[in-house]
């Protein structure tokens, strides 16, 4: 539970040690931001070669639910956070018995489960597309015909398009549900989208919220391809997106950096899902804003004042997936043309193994004009051989 609005909270000051569950690229940026502020960071991740673990002060190579490692993390770290939404909420709850954990296990657990997330949205009067809860095959047989064609999504552990499938009709949905092992799922109506948006924000312990500029996102095969900031939408739509995201963060009692993904369909804003962590579309903040999503994550965790997220420029981010490294993951792309452009920033995550669909890095183009930035980004994207969407 939150303290009353404006209530003080103990500051965790450097050179304290912070803990992080998860060792991916989001964690790597968290470690870098924490180091810049003078903290030490311990990472718990089962991958001995994880990007965050390699630059952490200590890397505990263990499963996320390994009790001895969790106990050591709690003993040595003054505050702990996560960079990955599928960390077991029970692990966070265990840590919270002896050290400070932000965001809370309860908030993360809700965002891990699409059924709980949909119930939360309904309870708080937040708009989302038409859907049906699917626990048994009979739920699909009874589903409203208007939900087809639809998207069948497993309730837990789905991201980047994993665990979801487009289903044209009822029979296909039933067959897909059976192939999933009859995992609890959500059937969502497939919408005609005007655009997809996301709001990345940070919320502090006293309830203050700082929102970054709304991003306009394009996906390929369920994976984010390009983010455009600021989003090219009507000011009223952008303001409503920020309002909805703020209501969600407040309703969750959330502390930390998070993202809310939204659809615009027929001019109407609908909440898609909530990510209880920094977000891929927020990478643009590293180059285009006065602060970035990862420093805000450190500050929220440690009860430091949140910074002004005002943009310094427009920005367009393009994801770089392992497909660019060739069929065997060994052909390093030629970055020369990208690095020659003064307005382009290349970010590689230090992952040793390139695989199709794996996020290996991104680049951002910054400019005073968003359309110019987009033109340069798309030209650079094409020069690398990324297929058009």
Would you write up a description of this structure?
This protein is α+β, with helices and mostly antiparallel strands. The protein is built from 13 helices and 18 strands. The strands form 3 sheets. Strands 10, 11, 12, 13, 14, 15, 16, 17 and 18 form a 9-stranded antiparallel sheet that branches. Helix 1 packs across helix 11 and helix 4 runs antiparallel to helix 5. The longest helix is centred in the middle third of the chain and has 18 residues. The protein starts with 16 loop residues before the first strand and ends in a 6-residue tail after the last helix.
Question: What tags apply to this protein structure?
Answer:
5-stranded parallel sheet, disordered N terminus, 9-stranded antiparallel sheet, globular, alpha+beta, 30% helix, 13 helices, 389 residues
TL;DR of this structure?
The protein is α+β, with helices and mostly antiparallel strands and 389 residues long. The chain has 13 helices and 18 strands.
Mean of all residue-level pLDDT scores: 94
Number of H/I helices:
13
Please state the overall shape, judged from the principal axes of the Cα atoms: globular
Number of strands: 18
Task: State the helical fraction.
Answer: 25-40%
Spatial gap, N to C terminus: 43 Å
Protein structure class: alpha+beta
Gyration radius, in Å: 21 Å
Task: Give the helix/strand layout.
Layout: E1 17-21, H1 25-36, E2 40-44, H2 51-55, E3 58-60, H3 67-76, E4 79-82, H4 89-96, E5 100-101, H5 105-112, H6 114-123, E6 131-134, H7 137-141, E7 150-154, E8 164-167, H8 170-179, E9 185-189, E10 195-203, E11 209-211, E12 215-220, E13 223-229, H9 235-252, E14 256-265, E15 268-275, H10 285-288, H11 293-301, E16 314-321, H12 336-339, E17 344-348, E18 359-367, H13 370-383
Helix pairs in contact: 1-11, 3-4, 4-5
């Amino acid at each position: 539970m939150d303290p009353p609005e404006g209530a003080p909270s103990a500051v965790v000051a450097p050179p304290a040690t912070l803990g992080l569950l998860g060792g991916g690229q989001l964690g790597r940026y968290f470690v870098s931001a924490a180091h810049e502020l003078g903290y030490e960071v311990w990472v718990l991740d089962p991958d001995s070669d994880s990007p965050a673990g390699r630059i952490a002060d200590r890397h505990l190579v263990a499963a996320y639910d390994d009790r001895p490692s969790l106990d050591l993390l709690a003993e040595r770290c003054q505050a702990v956070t996560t960079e990955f939404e599928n960390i077991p909420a029970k692990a966070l709850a265990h840590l919270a018995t002896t050290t400070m954990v932000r965001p809370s296990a309860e908030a993360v657990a809700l965002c891990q489960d699409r059924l709980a997330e949909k119930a939360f949205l309904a309870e708080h009067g937040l708009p989302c597309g038409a859907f049906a809860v699917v626990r048994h095959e009979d739920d699909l047989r009874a589903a409203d015909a208007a939900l087809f064609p639809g998207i069948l999504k497993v309730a837990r552990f789905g991201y980047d398009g994993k665990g979801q499938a487009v289903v044209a009709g009822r029979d296909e949905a039933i067959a897909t549900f059976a192939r999933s092992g009859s995992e609890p799922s959500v059937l969502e109506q497939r919408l005609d989208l005007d655009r997809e948006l996301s709001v990345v924000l940070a919320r502090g312990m006293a309830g203050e919220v700082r929102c970054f500029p709304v991003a306009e996102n394009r996906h390929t095969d369920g994976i984010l391809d390009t983010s455009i900031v600021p989003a090219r939408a009507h000011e009223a739509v952008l303001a409503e997106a920020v309002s909805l995201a703020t209501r969600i963060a407040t309703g969750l009692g959330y502390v930390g950096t998070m993202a809310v993904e939204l659809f615009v369909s027929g001019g109407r804003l609908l909440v898609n899902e909530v990510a209880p962590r920094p977000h891929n579309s927020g990478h643009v903040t590293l180059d285009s804003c006065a602060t970035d999503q990862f420093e805000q994550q450190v500050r929220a965790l440690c009860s430091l004042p949140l910074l002004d997220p005002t943009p310094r420029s427009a920005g367009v981010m393009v994801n770089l997936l392992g497909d660019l490294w060739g069929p065997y993951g060994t052909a390093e792309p030629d970055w020369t043309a990208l690095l020659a452009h003064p307005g382009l920033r290349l970010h590689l995550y230090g992952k040793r193994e390139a695989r199709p669909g794996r996020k290996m890095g991104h680049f951002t183009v910054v400019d005073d004009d968003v359309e110019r930035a987009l033109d340069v980004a798309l030209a650079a994207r094409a020069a690398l051989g990324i297929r058009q969407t």
